[in-house]
User: Which sequence fits this backbone?
């Protein structure tokens, strides 16, 4: 019997604002679409947190024996700067600034995206479609919307008529907005726009002569609107009505609101049963921003090459840190927080190693069945990873009591206990056991610090040849020195 038959999963639905019991459209199957990255720059840490949330959700569905089709797209055209309908495509702008072909930009940052997610032990999605690979489908959707009287062409561009749509539907239902309020709070169009209403959004944009990325259409040589691609790809691979649509909280409006409108205009039915949104990540209590320097890339966490953290941290430690907060909560990233997470991660891994050495007894003094179900209760409550981690540390306490002989487990209970710990730590949370050896780490750190001191003495004596030799030979061993006012540190 599949495991999902014995577990009642509740999901917070952004559409209703409530936790709802998950009932798939097709028994035993889950269709899930998550908005992927716009590949015009290195993937940032907030992206990683969002995709990690849905990676865990994907993993838990698989653990419950569901057959899952997980679709996560790549936006490689159509995402306008500042997420409005006027301006330059983000990828085209990057290509112009770096004097590259747009697809060179796309390739560079798609590779970076995949490398980072692999480093953080993400499972690949079932399908990873691109916007440029679905231009034909997007054009066909636009034709249907125009035929329904909800889309209109103006000077080679095509727009979605929000006011017309709202006569029979509710635009703003997901984000809690009211169309009348939106219209009342928007300045009048000054005649320079082709839109009939300020809230109308682009389905197709006519390309200016200098615009590099363009495709032929019945209306003009141009490119699709950003919102349209997800409608085209989600419905192509999951159908007009599917189970889950996810993304970051910042996509709720206008992106997801526009997706709903497009789907309903085309098919006459609501496209998604459960809308899920992951919350944002802050850094040292402030919004991450390259312009202020309050920013760190995922790769910089792994290398330690940054001015924010005291040292490098492994991907599993960073993953463990992020999963200590619920996906709908704001999470603040800081050096103190990830240092504390590293200690907890080590405790968990050491306990799992100790678990392998435990010997069964003829009697059981611990209620493993209740503890096991408490782990499921945590994940069944809208994928509550911090509560699950708390239960796993209750398991760590059990292991210590068993080691000390203060509690006992039968062979069957010990097998269940071990299998449950392994399943939730590795299969569901996606952590990896890096088998950190503290004694070896201490020896390495002592040796490198001794060489750093020797290099400092060489520099003080103006023996720069020896100083450079120490630095360069450490680099060949994969150890990079970093000089700062406070002193020299190293990363591996």
Assistant:
């Amino acid at each position: 019997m599949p495991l999902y038959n014995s577990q009642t999963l509740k999901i917070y639905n952004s559409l209703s604002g409530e936790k709802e019991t998950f009932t798939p459209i097709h028994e035993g199957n889950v269709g899930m679409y998550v908005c992927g990255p716009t590949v015009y720059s290195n993937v940032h840490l907030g992206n990683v947190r969002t995709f990690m949330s849905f990676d865990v959700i994907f993993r838990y569905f698989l653990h419950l024996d569901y057959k899952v089709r997980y679709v996560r797209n790549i936006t490689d055209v159509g995402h306008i700067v500042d997420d409005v309908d006027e301006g330059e495509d983000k990828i085209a702008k990057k290509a112009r600034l770096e004097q590259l072909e747009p697809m060179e930009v796309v390739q560079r940052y798609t590779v970076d995206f995949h490398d980072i997610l692999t480093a953080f032990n993400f499972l690949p999605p079932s399908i990873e479609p691109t916007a440029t690979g679905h231009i034909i489908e997007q054009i066909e959707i636009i034709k249907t919307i125009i035929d329904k009287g909800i889309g209109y062409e103006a000077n080679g561009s095509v727009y979605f008529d929000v006011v017309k749509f709202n006569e029979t539907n509710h635009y703003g239902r997901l984000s809690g907005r009211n169309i009348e309020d939106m219209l009342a709070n928007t300045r009048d169009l000054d005649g320079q726009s082709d839109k009939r209403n300020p809230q109308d959004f682009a389905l197709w944009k006519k390309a200016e002569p200098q615009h590099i990325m363009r495709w032929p259409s019945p209306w003009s040589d141009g490119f699709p609107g950003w919102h349209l691609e997800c409608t085209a790809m989600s419905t192509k691979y999951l159908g007009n009505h599917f189970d889950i649509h996810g993304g970051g909280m910042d996509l709720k409006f206008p992106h997801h609101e526009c997706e709903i409108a497009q789907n309903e205009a085309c098919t006459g039915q609501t496209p998604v049963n459960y809308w899920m949104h992951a919350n944002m990540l802050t850094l040292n209590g402030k919004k991450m921003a390259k312009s202020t320097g309050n920013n760190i890339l995922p790769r910089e966490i792994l290398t330690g090459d940054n001015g924010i953290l005291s040292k490098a941290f492994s991907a599993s430690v960073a993953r463990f840190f992020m999963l200590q907060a619920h996906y709908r909560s704001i999470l603040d990233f800081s050096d103190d927080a990830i240092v504390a997470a590293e200690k907890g991660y080590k405790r968990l891994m050491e306990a799992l190693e100790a678990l392998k050495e435990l010997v069964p007894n003829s009697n059981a003094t611990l209620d493993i069945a209740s503890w096991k179900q408490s782990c499921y209760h945590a994940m069944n409550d809208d994928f509550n990873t911090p509560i699950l981690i708390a239960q796993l540390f209750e398991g760590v306490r059990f292991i210590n009591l068993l080691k000390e002989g203060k509690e006992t487990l039968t062979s069957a209970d010990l097998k269940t206990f071990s299998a449950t710990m392994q399943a939730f730590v590795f299969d569901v949370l996606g952590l990896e056991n890096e088998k950190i050896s503290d004694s070896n780490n201490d020896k390495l750190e002592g040796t490198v610090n001794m060489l750093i001191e020797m290099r400092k003495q060489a520099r003080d004596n103006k023996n720069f040849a020896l100083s450079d030799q120490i630095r360069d030979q450490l680099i060949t061993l994969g150890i990079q020195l970093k000089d700062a006012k406070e002193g020299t540190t190293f990363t591996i």
